[in-house]
Amino acid sequence: MMFKSLSCFLLAALLPFAAIGQEYGKLELKPYQKQWEKGRLTISDFQGRPPKNTDQQSALDYQLGYLPEKSYKDDTTIFWLHTYSYMDQYRSWFRTGEKDETLLKYNQAVFNLIEVHDRRLQSELYRIRNISQAKPILNRLSDQLDFEISRFAEQTRNGQDAIGVQQYLVYTENQLLTIPKEEWPPLRRSKISYAVNGGIGYSASSGDIGRYFRNPMNLVAGVDVGYKKAALLLNATLGFTETNQAFTRLQTQYWETNLNSKMTLLEASIGYRVWDKAKLRVQPFAGWSWVEFAANDRIEVYKENELADHSFSAGLVADYKLRHRINLVPGFLGIREKAETSFRTRLSFSPATYAGLRKSNVFTIATTLNFSGRILRIK
């Protein structure tokens, strides 16, 4: 009966996992929030009113941050930390009469500097080991940005030194050339894959098993661990059936008609992917199996009634892929992954020979929801 416990354990492994949820959104900018890639600054970008209690000739109000974002591309959902920066046109201003070219270059240099730190932030967030590292990185780069803007303002007298402004503008433009915008990080997929699945199935038997037992309806669970195209497939099937007719086995086990019974089928096999495209993956498999039929053990007289045999199994697995997911936000143990959700159809065959009964064969078909993944590493 130990195999029943193992079967139940594998089935329990497919219960929903308790996970720490991360709120994801979509960055939506207002028309007055201008990003660097929208083009160089113009006088019309400064629509705010200057305060009365300042000697500054202009001010560029900006924001630098990140947003946990969920994006969609074809049938793929992408989770990532999306950085953003922009100037607020309503809060940025030129003092009346000071709308000259030098001051515009000064603010363009500041805008370039903001974009440089945006790119640095995105690059570092792609490579964090834990989500808790994101906020400190943002704070550090924001402090660096504030310091550089303050130093630039001091060195150019808030944009009044035309030569200094021009030199710094060239400097920031060179930085933009040497720090390219990393739209997508360089990824490397692990050779190791993993999957869990669960669902329902149906079995049919030949021989004396088919004669004495009705075809069971099943609960099915499985775990896959793969390397390249090969995979270890561990599957547990728990079937619910009853006897068709009374029979006696080995003159010691009496099974009455309509006796509630259970079928346990455990399989450990090796599969090999022969087809793996955008929507369909197919892998035949072969390996070991344990086939057991046992009476309802809550009735004392039938407690020891069981048929058990270890044999081999063979079959075919076909996964119809529903959706893909790429998670660039590090999760448990800092793992990033490429995952798939698919409908799995599994066909298997296991012969079974029990003393006192004719040789039988158990055929099983199962439909499960399969969740598979592969670890991603950022270079």
Number of helices: 5
Oligomer: single chain
Number of separate structural domains: 2
Classify the fold: give the CATH topology of the largest domain.
Answer: Porin
Query: Per CATH, which architecture of the largest domain?
Result: Beta Barrel
Mean pLDDT: 89
The main sheet orders its strands as 6-7-8-11-13-14-15-16
Question: Strand-and-helix sequence, N→C?
Answer: HEEEEEHHHEHEEEEEEEEEE
Shape: rod-shaped
| Radius of gyration (Å) | 33 Å
Number of strands: 16
Q: What is the CA-CA span between the terminal residues? A: 49 Å
How would a crystallographer describe the biggest sheet?
8 strands, antiparallel, barrel
* Poorly predicted runs of 5 or more residues: 1-20
Signal peptide: 1-21
Protein name: Outer membrane beta-barrel protein
Keywords: Signal
